[in-house]
Amino acid sequence: MTTMPTSRSRQRCELCGTEASELDPSAVCVKCGGLLEVVHWGVTSEASLRARFRERRAATSGADVSGVWRYRELVLPSATSDEIITQPEGNTPLIARRAIAAWAGVERLLIKHEGHNPTGSFKDRGMTVAITQARRAGARAVACASTGNTSASLAAYAALAEMPAFVFVPAGNVALGKLAQTIAYGAQTLVVRGNFDACLALVREASMRLGVHLLNSINPFRVEGQKTIALELLEQLDWDAPDWIALPAGNLGNTSAIGKGLREAYELGLVSRVPRIAAVQAEGAAPFAASFADGFATHLRVDPHTVATAIKIGDPASWNRAVRAIRDTNGTVLAVSDEEILEAKAVIDAAGVGCEPASAASVAGVAKLRREGAIRADERVVAVLTGHILKDPGIILKYHQETDPPPLHANRPIEIDARIEDVQRMFDRIQ
Ligand code: F0G
User: Fold this and answer.
1) Sheet containing 244-248: which strands, arranged edge to edge?
2) What pLDDT shows up at residue 1?
3) How far is CA 430 from the centre of its chain?
4) Pseudo-torsion of CA 83, 185, 314, 109, nearest 10°?
5) CB of 328 within 8 A of CB of 340?
6) Distance from the CA of 46 to the center of ligand 1, in angstroms?
7) Is 14 in the pocket of ligand 1 (CB under 6 A)?
8) pLDDT higher than 70, residue 120
9) Pocket lining: 150 vs ligand 1, CB cutoff 6 Å
10) Hey, whose CA ends up nearest to atom 6 of ligand 1?
11) pLDDT of res. 44
12) Angle 258-263-264 from CA coordinates, rounded to 5°
């Protein structure tokens, strides 16, 4: 049986504090253009919350099955079951793999695999909330800019909601699986001759001028859904917080969301301490890491380059929110090279877990922080894998078949004639 939440929410500008009702469809603050955040009040005690979350785990149908809406008191309490548009999403595994832990040098490393979401990435958590809210606010069409995962997710949820969807993606910079999904789910796909940052600027202008509802992670309801990664992993650990949570960082929506989730979990007494966030960027697209190094004194933009196309972003939109997340959690920001990302990915893949390149930045970041001594060998670390291995099949074949000389973990397929002697020769080599 579902217990109805008693808490309520409103939107508030993060810069000037101007408030807006929960159903206000504006993409940003109407007074100053700042980003909005959702604030909740009237949330019940932590004991009762824990009991409700647990109780909903027994559900076999409806929104309670979702690993996002299970936490609805902290997400969008006023949405009724009839209004919620869910696949469902979340309920992703928290797994231990010896080979990955050994490579990173952290014995108590756990992997939160968000690639297990319905469209294969963590984006589904934010999208279920944002599309639900878009429909409640009367949106007729939805749009986003994307490096591929947001667009795939938006396309799928818009199809579910039977709403027209427009996505803006950078030409030549979206991995095959993501582009295929976006097209197949039926979104109108606009391939922009420019990078992600140009796509985002364009869709922001389009949403303002043409009234289409913006579903990028600057949308505060995306943040509310996305923060359930943190809530779910804390619940999976029986509310015994780990020392670190490592995640890849691009547009900084996820860093912000996890920061908000941790802050609220702590303020509500769900956990007694806050894990440190380690936000990991790719070296060629690391303005936030560079800014962290000087205490966030400067807000930087770069011309981004990296093989991890998901995080090939030079001008992250959720900058201020993410600064707060890092400060609130005594976190850190670092950059890893493409070589480190690809090696981490090869280790994750060969362990039978698998992820897309950007996701592997989290594990590469843990290994680097361990080498530098920032993470101690006995600390408990959760690395978030944000996307599924099949998102970017092209890079896998390139790494294993075409890299010369073959990298450490290369697994080269061998073509043979259909003769048992050829097979025998191969077996003899292995045994
Ligand atoms: N990992 C993956 C697989 C991503 O797709 C993204 C972002 C990130 C990490 C970084 O998250 O942007 O919140 O810091 N992808 C966006 C997209 C930009 O359009 O799919 P972030």
Assistant:
1) 94-95, 109-113, 381-385, 244-248, 276-282, 332-336
2) 43
3) 40
4) 80
5) no
6) 31
7) no
8) yes
9) yes
10) 310
11) 82
12) 100
Written in H, E and C, the secondary structure of 378-405 is: CCCEEEEECECHHHCHHHHHHHHHHCCC
Tell me the best of 311, 385, 388 to mutate to test the pocket of ligand 1, counting ligand atoms within 8 Å of each CB and taking the most: 311
Ligand 1 atom nearest to 248, measured from its CA: 9
- Beta carbons of 70 and 57 less than 8 angstroms apart: yes
5 pLDDT band, cuts 50/70/90, is low
What pTM does this model have?
0.96
With residue 133 as reference, give the H or E element that holds it: helix 123-136
Please tell me the total number of residues recorded for the chain in this structure. Answer: 431
Check if 254 has its Cβ closer than 6 Å to any atom of ligand 1: yes
Q: How far is CA 222 from the centre of its chain?
A: 11
Residue 98 has pLDDT above 90, yes or no: yes
Angstrom distance (rounded) from CA 100 to CA 114: 17
The alpha carbon of 117 is separated from its chain's Cα centroid by a whole number of angstroms, namely 11
Q: How far apart are CA 269 and CA 272, in angstroms?
A: 6
Pocket of ligand 1 contains residue 177 by CB under 6 Å? no
Structural tokens at position 292: 């962290």
Burial tier of 429 (Cβ tally within 10 Å: 0-12, 13-18, 19+): exposed
Residues 6 or more apart whose CB falls under 8 angstroms from that of 18 comprise 12, 29, 30, 31, 32
DSSP letters for 238-298: TT---SEEEEE-SSSHHHHHHHHHHHHHHHTTSSSS-PEEEEEEEGGG-HHHHHHHTTT-S
